[in-house]
């Protein structure tokens, strides 16, 4: 089994949970998009279009809501409305539009004209933007295989912890995939630099980052400067890179900067943050790179972020570790 010192950072979130953040704080907007979503799931497509039309008079910046509106237009045989909303979704973020469509709630549109048109428009925009289509498609495959078995680990870790036969089996399957992906991504970076937004599109701009993050510590340290340059150039989101910076720091026995790395007590199964540099200001640093409050992150692992508690528990762990030597 691959020896893990950190919990996996789950970077791929379901868009249904993202939707709860909403793109506007306007109560009427929130009410309308919620009703639109419910109407879509209830197959009340005319009502769905009405709700979203009203919501979009307030604001239309959510790719998810726009894709749902387009789905209702297509399913409700209002092709003009469908075309308008699909065009808007592509305008907002053409890469995210396709990613959203892959979510389970759009399964009812698989193998339909909607899917074919979406893929066609996606590739047309990609070509127009000067994207390397072949490399983008290769990143798409790597993106899937990178998460192939990791997706199954969360529930198992929660129920059985890290050290269990199920995790051994999953790592036996994932490790060879990681090795192959790391070799290929290393080859690409060495030959042409980081494959970021301008070469593979916004949807796969973080794929190489994910592979490097899951690679060995030597590979992580080797490519971190290149990834920093890519982030500074807008080719990679800084909030993604922050995770790798923390991981590299911990590998070097240094405190993490952004608090992205979570550990688990083997005896109590309680989660905790590995040592954080200047913990009083961690939320300020997180905000600077586009990450949310640390306590929100802690809630995913069923614990609460408290600076003083963190310091006390860190001191206890250090003392315990020192005493065991």
Describe this structure in words.
There is one protein chain. The protein is an all-alpha fold and 325 residues long. It contains 16 helices and two strands. It has a two-stranded antiparallel ribbon. Strand 1 (262-264) and strand 2 (271-273) form a beta hairpin. It is globular, with a radius of gyration of 22 Å.
Summarize the structure.
The protein has helices at residues 15-19, 27-41, 45-56, 63-75, 79-101, 113-128, 133-147, 153-160, 165-192, 197-200, 207-213, 217-232, 238-251, 282-288, 294-299, 307-323, and strands at residues 262-264, 271-273. It is mainly α and 325 residues long. The protein folds into 3 domains: 15-128, Serine Threonine Protein Phosphatase 5, Tetratricopeptide repeat (Alpha Horseshoe); 131-253, no CATH class; 255-325, no CATH class.
Protein traits:
single chain, 325 residues, mainly alpha, Serine Threonine Protein Phosphatase 5, Tetratricopeptide repeat, two-stranded antiparallel ribbon, disordered N terminus
